[in-house]
Every structure is written in C-alpha cells, then in structure tokens.
Amino acid sequence: MRFTSCVKNLNKLLDLKSLKLLDHYSQFNPSPLSIKQFIEFGHTATESESFLFLRKEIPVRLSNIMKEINLLPGNLLQMPSVLILQDWYAKSFRDLTSFENREPTKETLEEFCLMLKTVQARHTNVVQTMAQGVLELKESHSVDNQTDMAIQYFLDRFYMSRISIRMLIHQHTLLFESDADRDTRRIGIIDPSCKVKSVIMEAFTNAAFLCEEYYNCAPDIEIKGQTKVLNEKGKKVALSLCYPPPHLYHILFELFKNSMRATVETHGIKELPLIEVLVAKGEHDVSIRVSDQGGGIPRHITDHLFHYLFSTAPRPSMTPAKAPLAGYGYGLPLSRLYARYFHGDLILNSYDGYGTDAVVYLKTLTHEANELLPVFNKTSTKQYKSAVPTADWTDPSYSMSRGNSRGGNR
User: In the beta sheet, which residues pair with residue 130?
Assistant: First the structure.
C-alpha cells in the first residue's frame, strides 16, 4: 500500500483550512437515525433545526468516508475515475463546511437548500465512477487477494455512506425547498403507508419491459402470502409498512431483472415458468421472497454474487445506448446495502439445476429500523491491512461480511 500519493491528492484538492476541518469532523462518529426519528423530525422540526443538524452531520459522514478513501491502495487512488470522484467529494465538503458558522437566516436557508441540490447532482454518477475506477485498476495492475478484500470492504462502506447522505439530503430538500409538495402523505421520501404489493408490481412491470426489449418475452408473476392484512378496525387492507419506496423498488427491480434473465436463458422463449413472490409480515419483519426456476447457481459461484464487479452476465459498456439488463456486477451488492441500510437484509438461496430464492427482510417497527453507518476509526483502519473482521459500524454487533448481528437480532 502506498500512502504518499493519496496525501498529495488531498493537499491538491483541499486548502489548509478545509484539511483541518476534515480532521476535525472525522473525529466524530455519525449519528444514525431510525425511520421513527425521520418521521418525527419531518412532522415537528423546523427548517432551521434541520439546517443546524445537517451542517454538522453531513460533513461528519463525508469526512469519515473521505478519510477511509485515503487508506485505499495508492494505485487505485491514481486511477482517472477515482481522481474525479475525490474531486467531487472535496468540493462537496468545502461547500458544506462554508455554512459552519452561518446563522439560519431566510437567505442562508435558501442557499443551503440549493447547495444540497448541487451536491446531490454532483454525486449522481458516483456508483458508476467508482466502479469504473476499480475496473481501470484491474485492467492496468495485478490485484492480489488482500488488495481485493480491502476494495470490497471499502465499497460496502463507501456506497452505504452515499446512500445515507443522499437520504439526509432528500429529506431536507423534499420537506423545505421552495416548491416542496405540502399535500403529500410522504415525509420526504418515506411513505408511512408504503404499499408493498404496489412497489412489487411497479418493479416487476419495469423489469419485464426491459426483459422484453432484450429477449422479446418475459415471465409472468404470481404474488401470494399476506398481501392483505387486518387493520385496527378488523377490515382487510393492503399490506403496508413505513419505508422509503425508492429503496424497496431498487432492491426488487434488481431481483426481478436477475430472475427474468435466468428464467428466459434457461427455458428459451417456450412457455416460461412464473416468478413467484411470497409476502409475509410479522411482529418484527416484513419478508419478501422472490422465487424463480431459472436453473439456479452453483454454490461455488453464489459465494461471489455479492462481490462487486462480479457478474454472471457479459459486461456491457459503461455508457450504453440503452439500459442494460445485467452485467456490471454491482446490482446485487448495492441492493443488499439498501436492505441493510435500515437493518434489514437480502439473502440468496440457490438450488443448482432448478432455481433461486432471494429473500428481502425489512423491519416492521420504525424504532428498530435504524441506519447502519460506517465509522472511521483505528479498527476500520486495520481492515485495510488485515483480513480479520472487527466491529466498525454504528451497531457494534453487526458484521457486514456475515450479514447479521452477532447478538441474534437481524
């Protein structure tokens, strides 16, 4: 590992004052919020209170991950795409910390909201750019196992940090921007009554459209289980939970794309078996199982399915003319992060020669649905030099590699 080049990168990208602020904010741990807190904050907090919280919390989250970027192998940090990405993060950190000592006047609040939207737009292509940087490294250098493990470890944390920062920005801008929708039942992007079946059908329909574009056919769907539940008055209503619909859509769209491709490629255009979806809601978990008869995946390959840049499909262009169905190799690991962000999970059970079950777990109770965030400290630093797993998340009992908390609660 080389560290000199990455220090030079930061020195080029940040002035001395910003470097000192980076050191300052990185000493704080991120403050994870639960869906319950997001909802309560959305109902009761003023724009000034949101401003005062975010002007510290977002720089804390940014600085934590920026410090961690510097622990990556020097060769990776010098890849063109990673240099672009570091520049975006440095600019966003400077933009955010420029509000550090400002009073929450009307003018300041308007400027802050516009700045958040600028940051959001700047970071739109972060996932693809980071993936491209790793590809550039693999195409120009030999990558040993320890370096690959360090990169995989980092990408989980880097992308989770991005999900969380986008969540905070979305909540503020959707609640407080000048043309915010005041009549919606949603609190930012959180829907207190997210209709699970509706999101399933939207994701399935869009994945089927994509599948038909590529193969001129797509399997149908069968949804069973608890699609309806009894409400407090004993009336049957559609199963819902308090959750951000875009996150659930992202997860399900990816699973349906994978299931459809496997089903069509296994069975051809003859009569296609259905994709079955089972929905269940218990006291603690909402579970969604997506089952296909797409031939399954051998066990030695399933170990790699959550490995970034691993794909069972040919790799498409990074700038395709139309949306690819598969092949980039970060769809599944990113979907698992979206599930884990609020302490849910995504697991795969595959039956080689038959098909695959993918199960999404989401928290039923809003106070249990806490953000899971990476923390930069001595423990996480050691991970870039050692393969020994250690506690380095906001929930110390959590292990990203094992997928659940050691204490037994999912």
Answer: none
